[in-house]
Amino acid sequence: MNKIGIYINSSHRAETVKSTIQMPDSWKEFTVIAVPHDQVKAYEKHNDWPILGIPEDVPQFLPHQRQWIMENTEYKYVWMMDDDLKFRCRRTEGDVRLTNCKRKDLRMLLRTLEDTLHKAKIPIVGVSTVFGNNRVEEPYTECCRVTRCYCVNKRIFDKVGASFAVFEGFVMEDFHVILCFLENGYIDRCIYTFAQEDAGSNAKGGCSEYRTSKVQERSAFTLAELHPKSVTIQRKTTKGSWSGFEKDRTGKVIRTDVNIQWKKAYVPKRDKKSGIAGFLA
After folding, report:
1. Distance between CA atoms of 130 and 78, rounded to whole angstroms?
2. pLDDT tens string 43-78
3. Which is it for strands 140-142 and 188-197: parallel, antiparallel or unpaired?
4. b/e for 197-207, b at 16 or more Cβ within 10 A?
5. What are the DSSP E strand ranges found in 72-169?
6. N or C terminus: fewer CB in 10 A for the chain?
């Protein structure tokens, strides 16, 4: 059995799943597109990858769907990813330019994630976004934001009491989970030799089905309450996306968001064993 299981959460996007396009066919053995129970047939019609139907009693919100996966998976490491991703990579050491990934590149990405999780003992590791990737020349950074595409050590996830499902409709689950790791003495890592990009915030389907300005605001304030040391509330404006949100006079979207000091959130385990012994404790 493969140590890493890939779960691609999706909802009402049966005809537009992109994250599997660049993947080797052999990955079908440990990859599923996870969808609400009543959408299984639609996804099976339009996709030749395994479909996992999440039970009817699980709320049809992404955080709850992911939490159910974490509670029921048999894999040691869980690779969560959005359904609309395209992967890129760097070809030469020291060159930050990105090119589209081929299947052999994704195999290398899988090995990189496995080595980071198993050998380096980093319990949560993500893939950089395309936006901002060229600002980091190093192969990775730590104690930082990862989003849309990341692997989690299930045992450590349970140990630190992390949860995606803070409340129904919570839209900052990625941030909350990472902060739970950091605050309990476990660093995360973001790989920069690879990168991923999506269709844009609040794109049709997925979280956009329930992400409203009120849900966004409640999520921001909840995250700040749960992590007061490192999270502050901030009003942000942006062009495009975020349909249905308030706009200013220039047409820019206004939303309640957060500012997170990731390194400030990290609390070293000074009074615990270090190295591998500490990781296994």
Report:
1. 22
2. 999 999 999 999 999 999 999 999 999 999 999 999
3. antiparallel
4. bbbeebbebbb
5. 77-81, 86-90, 98-100, 124-129, 140-142, 149-153
6. N
Helix (H, G, I), strand (E, B) or coil at 145: coil
Could you identify the residue written with the tokens 């192969």? 139
172-181 pLDDT, tens per residue? 999 999 999 9
Q: Is the dihedral of CA 163, 77, 72, 14 positive or negative?
A: positive
Can you tell me the distance from the alpha carbon of 195 to that of 188, in angstroms, rounded to the nearest whole number? Answer: 16
Residue with tokens 């009120």: 214
Residue-range domain boundaries for the chain = 4-280
**How does pLDDT run across 90-124, given as a tens digit for each residue?**
999 989 999 999 999 999 999 999 999 999 999 99
Topology annotation, domain 4-280: Spore Coat Polysaccharide Biosynthesis Protein SpsA; Chain A (3.90.550)
User: Tokens 């020349």 sit at which residue?
Assistant: 137
Report the alpha-carbon distance of residue 75 to residue 168 in Å, rounded.
26
**Kind of pairing between the strands at 31-36 and 4-9:** parallel
Dig out the tokens for 1 from the structure: 């059995």
The pTM score is 0.90
Q: Give yes or no for a contact between 53 and 35, defined as CB atoms under 8 angstroms apart.
A: yes
Strand intervals (E) in the chain: 4-9, 31-36, 51-54, 77-81, 86-90, 98-100, 124-129, 140-142, 149-153, 188-197, 231-238, 253-260
> What residues are paired with 78 via a beta bridge?
5, 152
Three-class DSSP category at 23? coil
Cα Rg of the chain (Å, integer): 18
Q: Residue 109 has which token pair? A: 């990405």
Q: Which two tokens stand for residue 272?
A: 């615990």
